[in-house]
Amino acid sequence: MNLETIALADICQGERKRPVDQGKVAEIARSIERDGLYQAIGVIPCQCGKKAGNEHYNLIFGAHRVAAYQLLQRDTIEASILDIGLDEESYLLIELQENSARNDLTGAQRKAYAAEIGRLLSRIAENSRLLIENDEWFKEIIKT
User: Fold this and answer.
1) Is the pLDDT score of 101 beyond 90?
2) What pTM did the predictor assign?
């Protein structure tokens, strides 16, 4: 995973697990103005049909931070460039794990995320393409 500064215009956002709350975006924007960005967003390189010749990225986590940067009219944001080549379930698991660490989740949201994470872990464990015994990230998620 590499940390890079990327253009907001080069980020593609698909359907999110957690809808963007504009009140939370405003709160995050105030925090960013005051203290800067504490945690980078997570993206993977993609071909999402934006301007030719530029690198493009699919957003894995950090939709509220992206929206806050847009509100602040910033052009770039710090991003962790995640490993490419994982299956869709693994990226969804990363998004759910990052979201489940949020302090602002309700008990019902935490319960729903935990249930979905459990389903994903089961599907990934059955997938012979992953070498679970050698994957420290996967072991850490199972513990969490």
Assistant:
1) no
2) 0.69
Cβ neighbors of 29 (< 8 A, separation 6 or more) are 68, 69, 71, 72
What residues contact 62, with CB distance under 8 A and at least 6 apart? 39, 40, 41, 42, 43, 79, 98
Q: What number is the average pLDDT over the span 102-131?
A: 68
CA distance 22 to 34: 18
- Residue 7's DSSP bridge partners are 76
Q: In what order do the strands lie in the sheet with 2-7?
A: 2-7, 76-81, 41-46, 56-61, 11-12
pLDDT tens string 40-90: 999 998 866 555 556 789 998 899 999 999 999 999 999 999 878 777 777
Token digits of residue 5? 């500064």
- At residue 46, φ and ψ (nearest 5 deg) are -155, 175
> CB-side exposure of 122: number of CA atoms within 13 Å?
6
